[in-house]
Amino acid sequence: LYQAGNVVRDLHFYGGRYGIVSEKTSPAWQFTVLDSSFDGQRSAAIREHEVALTLVNVAVRDTPVGIEIDKGYGDWLWGKDVRFERVRQAAVVISNESTVYTQVGFDQALAVDTPVFARFRDSGKTVAGKGRFYRVTAFSHGLAVPALGQMGAITTTADIAALDALPPARTPAIRSLPPVTDWFDARQSGAVGDGKADDTAALQRAIDSHRVVYLPSGRYRISDTLHLKPETVLVALHPTLTQIVLDDLAPAYQGMGAAKAMIQTAQGGDAIVSGFGVYSGGTNPRVTALLWTAGENSLVDDIKVQGGHGTGLIPYNANHTGDSDPARRWDGEYPSIWVTNGGGGTFNGIWSPNTFAEAGLYVSDTTTPGHVYQLSAEHHKRAEIIVQRAANWEFLAPQTEEEFGESRAAASLEVRDSHDLLFANYHAYRVTRMQVPAGAAVHLYNVRNIRFRNVAVNGESGFTYCDNDTDCITYLRANKYPFENAIADQPSGAVVRERQFAALDIASASPAALPPSPQVKKLAGGFYGLGGGAVDSKGRLYFVDRAMQRIYRWSDARLDVVSDHPLDPVNLAVDASDHLLVLSSAGDRGSVFSLDPATAAINPIAPTRDVVQRKALLALPTNWWVNGEFQDRYDPAYDRFTTLAELFAHDAGTAPANAYVSPDGSLALPAYRTVHQGPPDDRGWRFSHALDGYGFQRAALGSRIYISNSSEAKTYSAKVGKGGALTDLKVFAMRGGESVASDASGRVYLANGQIFVYGADGREMGRIDVPDRPLQLVIGGVDHQTLFILTNHALYAMSLAQPGLKY
Questions:
Q1: What angle is formed at CA 351 by the lines to CA 350 and CA 355, rounded to 5 degrees?
Q2: Residue 212 CB burial class (10 angstroms; 0-12, 13-18, ≥19)
Q3: Nearest-5° angle of CA 493, CA 497, CA 503?
Q4: Residues 14-31: what's their mean pLDDT?
Q5: pLDDT tens column, 560-578
């Protein structure tokens, strides 16, 4: 199986060199393998990287390596109830062990004749098994966060115990459907499925008289609740081609009142629904598509909730502020899938992006165990997944996505008054085109005994842009507005700023939030989303509030508005005349102009070739995002993939042919290729290394500078070449964040959740804690000894000239 995606089950691989070879899935969702086995592969059962591999009830037998992560890459790898039998070299080979993008965890793994459980490719370290038979109760490698409010460190933990023999294999994670010979065709009870006839009565007759009801392809229009019996199996074969639909303004679902289901289970039963879609309309305020109160043995499998961006039903007006029909209200219906009143069971392969619903999945008032595998909940207005007054659930490979129109204020996950939950291989994604900040992906209210394993809170995506049939380049673009934090505890205010981490246990609620460093002072607040900071020769700071289209200046304890014309400024640099070189997102491919701060007069600048004087400084991004996502990176001649570091070195080392040069000739901004997506007016989006960065730094040809590649979570030093090419890249720190700055003494300040301080030798010296997430660092002030700290909503500063300064 090559280039896998999303979820598979009951697959069995025999022989060959590998069973599965895969890179990141096409939409960058996780890849889940359930109830499967691998026997006798020559090299490894699975060879992969960045696929967010999730394994449940998988057996690997008689092979040198179980799972091999490619050299130069990491993965979010989680395994539950995985058996390794006679795996001769290592159950798992872990690469890129020192980066936050490597997160490897196992829960209740078993092994026999597998002497090495984990081998680290780069360091050569190993985690050995114990005896011939052993159980790995828990294994975790990656950045571990000790508690809410704290930063983390790379850690390996392993709880391994010897056994006398392996226990028998567990029951399958996913129940089998009844044999096809037991299926009753709903058309035989009078159902039509043409989207016009009311099939409510016919479907209910079929359910009442038969245990297994099959829905052939079609749209089954209903007008009232379908009530399942405790043992009902409702099955179809394609969740887009077969749908159960509700009209807009359905009379039974109008008015104010309790939720009314389209499909409702019997209390405590073991019902199965599988393989169809559900559409609840956009004007039915009482509707919930699936009200689930069935028991632990029940199953919801391969269900797609229609209605919303992502399911072929685009709920947008011209500027994406509402639905094209104003009567169809976003967040105007009950949750799409509501598990409550003691409900539980297994939920597998669910896609729930209905913008009209309160949430994609809502679990409440239950302690019945629940198992969620490969759920995608997307495009809701306030929260994608909600867990309230619930316990004994696990969520493996849940994925959320917040769109820029409908989900600007949405949380990925809310957990309220709940305990004993596991979230593993959890990805919380905000789209690249998001134009507003958001505080945290996860909101916690009064929780205890919550385990987070393999968490990725991200805001990047890629696409392929083609000038013609042969000139195609794959771009990876970075989001300036991912979630600022991974987790926020609402009662205490404590947050987790690490956005990629392997382990966090929350034993009890309401920890004390850690205070900021006392040296950090707030200068101004009330902003919308800051960036683009730059200082002039007098140390005065200029910066942009992008959404408000304002350019500010901070000088002598005074804040001034330099420009607030609708010019879409994004990033700034200052030339030798103390005029601003302004990068704007206006125009089809962005624009650059010079601005005189004294008069606010602007002078548009066109890109030119070969006019940059050798003595001119270059304005270069401080943070980059390059990892060649969705490119074919395999080199068959050497049976290897181009590493992330090699991809970054190639991209950063290729200078644009043109540059934008300041009127005085002292400063040049390389004209990085800009990609335009969407309409040509201000509703479209522009992406480039310069537009995507939080700010610029000025650098002389031949000098060495520091840059962060956030897609590797590394900071490099690099030599500045002609046109801004960055060569001779050397890893400086195993943290890479939003910004990096260095002072006259050689100290380096790196913004990555907090501010990490390094000596010129790369040794970590300490940390500066800031009340808000630092996004850009700029050194200025009258004495050029002030560290300005830009966050989304406030400007802070810290004097670097304090006597006896400690971090």
A1: 135
A2: buried
A3: 105
A4: 92
A5: 999 999 999 999 999 999 9
